[in-house]
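Need the bound structure for aspartyl-adenosine-5'-monophosphate, inputs here:
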Amino acid sequence: MRVLNIETKGYLGKKIKVAGWVNSRRDHGKIVFLDLRDKSGVLQVVAHSKIAEGIKEEDVLEVEGEVKERPKEMINPKLETGNVELKAEKIKILVKSQKLPFDIKSLKLSLPKLLDFRPLTLRNEKQRAIFRVQREIIDSFRKTMKNLGFFEFEAPTIVASATEGGAEVFHVDYFDKDAYLAQSPQLYKQILVSVFERVFTVCKAFRAEPSITTRHLTEYISLDCEMGFIESWEDLMETCEIVVKNIFSDVERNCKKELEMWGAKIPEIKGKIPRLKLREAQEIILKRTGKDKRENPDLDPEDEREICNYAKEKFNCELVFITHFPTSKRPFYTFEDPENSEYTLSFDLLFRGLEIVTGGQRINDYKYLVKKMKRFKLDPKNFKYYLQAFKYGMPPEGGFAIGAERITKQILGLENIREASLFPRDLQRVDIRLKKKK
Ligand code: AMO
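Answer from helper R.:
Posting the output first, comments after.
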């Protein structure tokens, strides 16, 4: 039976079989060192040149032999299997690899090349680490949600209307009728509050982003939740804080090696994440930079960086909630501040200079929701299906969504969000770079 590389430490002096890809080959006369890579890590295989003949990088092997302790001077403390090696007795080449177009281990490539060769570049240890961290983030979100009594559901991808407003929606030619790719699971998570009270989903969201930025994808992973019977919209920010803090502590505990590879440090959050109203933030930005953005309905990327610098200096916190965005600029479903209807009970969470979460309280009163749709020039008839949930009793509710690639990017300090997507899609790329239609 096959033993994983990481488990070989437990088989000292025993004969076992391992399998994997050749990460590297080093020849020392009649002795050949092969670093064999499998899903668990790398193991050093020592073989006589006769049985290692013709073996090259990325060939897929099955190796049988004895697990031995390495001589003291050969111990590699950087490797989890660094004090053992496998003395090969039999090597079976399961399949040969063709000549590699570049060195996978050092991977000195531009971003477009890195993505063009994704099936290959993902084999690089540091690239794989990104997605181990992302997996931990998603698992952590799911774990916290379940612990807090949220019900997991799968949101539809093909939807009948644009939910988040704007023109950033992909049209689907649906049997000669109109449909769209979901910009978010917003309407469905709200509907389900009237069924399960607390719900969450890990789903794909689609935005027809017309520009190339380091923070936008056209398809991203959304970690969405929605909760009913809130006593105040503060409940939402508190839940968001619990979720994000758990993500940080799970990644710190379970992804030590990955964080080290990227030189990344998990932020320390002592006490509560600071909160600033949008207009307060803009006043601070004016004082710090002399730039007057007090009329703007949102923060731009430069503002997000500036206000995070401020939060770090003032509160020693790398995260900050921005609240009370203008009613005119938030989607139709957003609850207005009873103290000033110009603003909403909504928030963004910024982390190291980038928005990673959006959330807020929703309008749960049927008649008011219909009125608000009309004010937003939306036809309630097109939302008849969704409105049923409100017509027949929706408790006070709200929720939020975390962008999985964004939080991954910020934790690891990646320069571009595409690096945090296994198979990124953007204006110019679906797997490969797209060519213009002739
Ligand atoms: P919003 O549109 O702000 O809110 O999106 C929520 C979060 O999703 C991430 N995100 C993106 N990530 C990568 N590429 C994109 N193009 C992209 N667009 C958004 C961000 C953002 O904070 N329904 C609301 C959420 C809610 O109120 O519950 C919504 O979709 O991290």
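Comments: The first helix runs from residue 111 to 116. Residues 164, 184, 186, 207, 209, 216-217, 220, 222, 355-360, 399-401, 403, 405-406, 417 surround aspartyl-adenosine-5'-monophosphate (CB under 6 Å).
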